């Protein structure tokens, strides 16, 4: 949005909404803008935005407030109700809408209400203006304006980047497809590979960026729109010699992984993949509408291991129909892919996002409830609710805190990913890598084995009687968490010191 505004002759400034609201207020007062826009992708942060808009209005900020993003686009009525200080909502893609809205606002009066793609309130009603067609050629847009780039690892700067928009798949827990269907656009659009490499080259030369994290929901590994996309992309990386200077991460499905293609990608800088695995049972995969099997997941993972490409993964361990049987089958699957420490163990609880099939199913069966404004549900077995609550209490620090084992494991793995690409000619570093893999393996197995042991306890229902047993788990988990965290931190400190010494000697 910022780069589009600049191209239209409109001055803009990006402000991170995670800053303290007093600092945001100070910035806005200094700029005195015509319009302030809020990017609202998910309902999780609604309360933060409500608080911020109320604070800004209470401090005398009277300019036009608008909002955009997935949630704003798909749930405009709900957003206006919860955020009464909004003047408008830019629905769906805003590259053509926002500059038009700003120009109308600058002219004064009520003409801004003519803007296509916006929603606004009038006489107590929500007005949804006509939608304009989406832009099919994404390369017509300028490269994004960016805040100063941050460091990824070993002083290597990173940037997020997109190869396209949308997703051809239709998983039952995701609303990406619904977003583009309601916008009356194609569910998937892809940029020209030459233009993606051109943006990467620009960021490398002008901003010193050498790590690229692709944010596509589904990177065009296999594209019916452009079957040769990956091949052309890699040819361009080689032609510009970026393949020797930068590394990149993508997200894709395990069933899209083929050895020849991913070997070509690795040669040209691919260092990490985020896999949408989601479930370790065929029944669960069908329920999530993944059109994939467990065998396909394992095959894709094995190819990445063979090629020595690191991977993260998404896994929805807790779902509306989770039982002890499905839970333990999924824990066995996670043990299979995480026991060797190749990747940190992780999992999530399914959130029934707005405008998804799962949300509709929960509504239809009367099982959808709300907790802090977020859709929620109970599990089929009552004791599973208590089990989940206990697990959450025990492992929240482990799985969710910035200095939790999972987070610092991923931080350490990212450093080693960069190390193995840029410093793999130093055999001493392999010793650190093997040690960190052993720590990952031990911590993964501890997490999964304890979750399985606790599931057996809760399933047979003795937990009401034996509080001392559960307290012993709490103490053990806390102790092991601190142990693994310190082991990772100490190992990484030695690696960083080693690399620094080597660079000084060089």
Polypeptide structure, described:
The strands form 4 sheets. A 7-stranded mixed beta sheet has the order 6-7-10-11-12-13-14. A 5-stranded mixed beta sheet has the order 1-2-3-4-5, with helices on both faces. It is globular. The chain is built from 18 helices and 16 strands. It starts with a helix and ends with a helix. The protein has helices spanning 2-7, 21-31, 46-58, 70-74, 76-82, 97-106, 176-182, 193-207, 229-239, 259-267, 282-287, 294-307, 324-338, 357-364, 382-400, 405-422, 428-459, 467-505; strands at 35-39, 64-68, 88-90, 118-122, 125-128, 150-153, 156-161, 164-166, 188-190, 209-214, 247-252, 270-278, 310-318, 348-349, 369-371, 374-376. Helix 13 (324-338) packs antiparallel against helix 17, helix 15 packs antiparallel against helix 17 and helix 16 (405-422) runs parallel beside helix 18. The protein has a domain at 2-128: Cobalamin-binding domain (Rossmann fold), CATH 3.40.50. With 506 residues, it is an alpha/beta fold. Helices cover 48% and strands 15% of the residues.
Features of this protein?
506 residues, alpha/beta, Rossmann fold, 7-stranded mixed sheet, 5-stranded mixed sheet, 15% strand
Helix percent band: 40-55%
Radius of gyration based on Cα positions: 25 Å
Q: State the fourth-level CATH superfamily of the domain at 2-128.
A: Cobalamin-binding domain
CATH topological fold name of the domain at 2-128? Rossmann fold
Q: In the CATH classification, which architecture of the domain at 2-128 applies?
A: 3-Layer(aba) Sandwich
Structural class: alpha/beta
CATH class of the domain at 2-128: Alpha Beta
Low-confidence stretches: none
**Number of beta-strand segments:** 16
């Amino acid at each position: 949005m910022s780069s589009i505004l600049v191209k239209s002759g409109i001055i803009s400034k990006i402000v991170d909404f995670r800053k303290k609201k007093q600092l945001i207020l100070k910035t806005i007062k200094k700029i005195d803008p015509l319009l302030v826009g809020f990017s609202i992708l998910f309902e999780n942060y609604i309360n933060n935005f409500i608080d911020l808009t109320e604070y800004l209005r209470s401090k005398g900020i009277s300019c036009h407030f608008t909002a955009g993003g997935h949630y704003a686009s798909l749930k405009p009525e709900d957003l206006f109700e919860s955020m009464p200080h909004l003047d408008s909502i830019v629905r769906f893609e805003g590259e053509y809408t926002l500059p038009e809205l700003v120009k109308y606002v600058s002219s004064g009066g009520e003409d801004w209400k003519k803007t296509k793609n916006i929603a606004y309130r009038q006489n107590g009603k929500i007005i949804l203006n006509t939608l304009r067609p989406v832009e099919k050629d994404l390369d017509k847009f300028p490269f994004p304006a960016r805040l100063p780039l941050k460091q990824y690892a070993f002083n290597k700067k990173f940037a997020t980047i997109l190869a396209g928009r949308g997703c051809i798949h239709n998983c039952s827990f995701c609303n990406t497809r619904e977003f583009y269907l309601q916008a009356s656009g194609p569910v998937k659009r892809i940029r020209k590979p030459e233009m993606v490499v051109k943006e990467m080259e620009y960021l490398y030369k002008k901003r010193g960026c050498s790590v690229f994290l692709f944010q596509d929901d589904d990177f065009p590994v296999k594209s019916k729109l452009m079957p040769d996309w990956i091949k052309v992309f890699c040819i361009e990386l080689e032609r510009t010699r970026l393949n020797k200077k930068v590394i990149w991460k993508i997200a894709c499905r395990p069933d899209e992984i083929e050895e020849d293609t991913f070997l070509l990608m690795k040669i040209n800088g691919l260092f990490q993949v985020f896999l949408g695995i989601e479930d370790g049972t065929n029944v669960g995969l069908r329920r999530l509408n993944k059109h994939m099997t467990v065998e396909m997941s394992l095959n894709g993972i094995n190819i990445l291991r063979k090629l020595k490409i690191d991977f993260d993964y998404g896994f929805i361990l807790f779902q509306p129909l989770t039982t002890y049987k499905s839970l333990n089958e999924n824990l066995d699957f996670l043990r299979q892919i995480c026991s060797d420490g190749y990747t940190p163990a992780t999992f999530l609880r399914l959130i029934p996002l707005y405008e998804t099939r799962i949300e509709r199913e929960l509504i239809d069966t009367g099982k959808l409830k709300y907790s802090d404004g977020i859709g929620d549900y109970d599990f089929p077995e009552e004791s599973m609710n208590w089990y989940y609550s206990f697990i959450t209490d025990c492992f929240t620090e482990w799985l969710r805190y910035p200095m939790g084992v999972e987070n610092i494991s991923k931080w350490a793995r990212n450093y080693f990913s960069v190390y193995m690409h840029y410093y793999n000619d130093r055999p001493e570093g392999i010793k650190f890598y093997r040690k960190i893999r052993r720590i990952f393996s031990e911590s993964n197995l501890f997490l999964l084995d304890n979750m399985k042991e606790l599931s057996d306890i809760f399933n047979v229902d003795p937990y009401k009687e034996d509080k001392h047993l559960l307290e012993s788990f709490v103490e053990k988990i806390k102790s092991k968490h601190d142990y693994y965290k310190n082991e990772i931190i100490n190992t990484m400190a030695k690696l960083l010191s080693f690399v620094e010494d080597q660079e000084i000697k060089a």
